[in-house]
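Case study B.
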Amino acid sequence: MRLDIITVLPDLLASPMQHSIVSRAQKKGVVEIFIHDLRQFGIGNYRKVDDYGFGGDAGMVLMVEPLYNMVTTLQQERSYDEVIYLAPDGELFDQPMANQLSCLQNIILLCGHYKGIDHRIREHVVTKEISIGNYVLSGGELAAAVVTDAIVRLLPGAISDETSALSDSFQDGLLAPPVYSRPAEFNGWRVPDVLLSGNPKLIKTWQDEQALERTKMLRPDLLDS
Ligand code: ADE
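Model:
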């Protein structure tokens, strides 16, 4: 998979791509991630990328031209399955959407900033709009990092134990069961006996029960859907 992320704040995105699973996946060649500074396509000597919005509303808008030129330059080099704009009024991101996106080859993630991007880009260039939650961030960068992380960990080879991403919370519509590590007893707090039993069938049954119980207790809404 190849991800091209377009932003006016490339430094804000650099760090999340340089740690943990996302970093290892890049080193293993599972994913290529490119962060593009929109200012490369800024206008004039000052490389201007934003301007006042028409209509008198306070706040700056990312301009149509730099965005269009940046995206079409990438599109001339390869075809993209989706051009995704991160926005609070997009479709709510969830695990099924992450699963779907992880099956694609080439994706552009477009980060807005200030008041947003010129709406003509949303109408004519963007193919999908994603929100990571019902709140407003200062820009799309943190949302792009969230979407990238959720997708990349699903790619074959990103996680050494291939089954581990499948047992994540939400993968089967349930929260994940609790996990424990050594020592088996600390401060008088014991790990459930069943996990020490060495019986895979009993352990699986316990984990399934726990997943269901925790979902009923903490996120009953997941069971409705
Ligand atoms: N940009 C600003 N707020 C956002 C959100 N909640 N999700 C995605 N992108 C955003």
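The two ends are 30 Å apart (CA to CA). The remaining cases will be described in the next quarterly update.
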